[in-house]
Amino acid sequence: MVYDRLFSTQHWLRRALQHLSHTALVSSLLRGHCLLCGAATAWREDFCPACEQSLPFAGAGCRRCAAPLTGAVSGAQPCGECQKHPPAFDRTLAAFAYAPPLDRLIQGLKYHRQLHLARTLGRCLADALAAATPGLPPPPERVDVIMPVPLHTGRLRRRGYNQSLELARPLAKQFGLPLDYRSLRRTRATPPQAALPVKQRKHNVRGAFAVKGEGLAGARVALLDDVMTSGHTVNAAAACLRRAGAKSIEVWVVARA
Ligand SMILES: [Zn+2]
Ligand SMILES: [Zn+2]
Q1: Which residue has the higher pLDDT, 15 or 59?
Q2: What is the pLDDT of residue 188?
Q3: pLDDT of 66-111, one tens digit each?
Q4: Is position 158 within any domain?
Q5: 230, 112: one domain
Q6: How far away, in angstroms, is 75 Cα from ligand 2 center?
Q7: Domain of residue 122, residue span
Q8: What is the C-alpha separation between 82 and 88, in angstroms, rounded?
Q9: Do 11 and 108 share a domain, yes or no?
Q10: In a domain, 111, yes or no
Q11: Does 85 lie in the same domain as 126?
Q12: Where are the beta strands (DSSP E) in 88-152?
């Protein structure tokens, strides 16, 4: 009698587990959740269709610095600022404008240790790079190495990670390009650009970078950062790469402010 009851409990339990494995468990494994609103999404989808539509995909921008172009300005010429002060980099490609709701994800990655967002945002940038460059060969044919904009060691220690390096990992993987996060270094601890008035930002990062080693002669570099605002940080880094012999420099950013 006791044996019967035990057997029937085991049997029931096994049936229940089998049932679960065919329904809730499997579908929960095959589903994700939208990073913005939490709604269930299809497997491997990071956003629900409504949130995906609400993302601020980058529009037409200056081909040199990706600043948004307004009105009658044509995309064939660099923007006024780039004509007046040509930057040290050749081209900038951005996946998004720095605007809601995407800014939340970038802040989550940068300030709240949500490192899983690097995979999503890095993949979005890779998709944008693969799609949005008419007239250009694909990234692996025009770039030799990806270099994330480095943090100063003090800030790296406090934050525990460099968000630009985390963003660069999925891109390097997708394009089969080497990732070099050692050659370019930040030699000076500078206040965060966002904390400074625009006029002081250029001075703040001037001479803040150095290149270690001699391996950059003739290299075609993609310099990667999360957000580009004034462009002074990537410009200072690009100027340093240029002095170290880099042949061409593209700037890749997730978002352009
Ligand atoms: Zn959503
Ligand atoms: Zn420009």
Answers
A1: 59
A2: 84
A3: 998 876 555 678 999 999 999 999 999 999 999 999 999 999 999 9
A4: yes
A5: yes
A6: 10
A7: 58-256
A8: 10
A9: no
A10: yes
A11: yes
A12: 91-97, 145-148
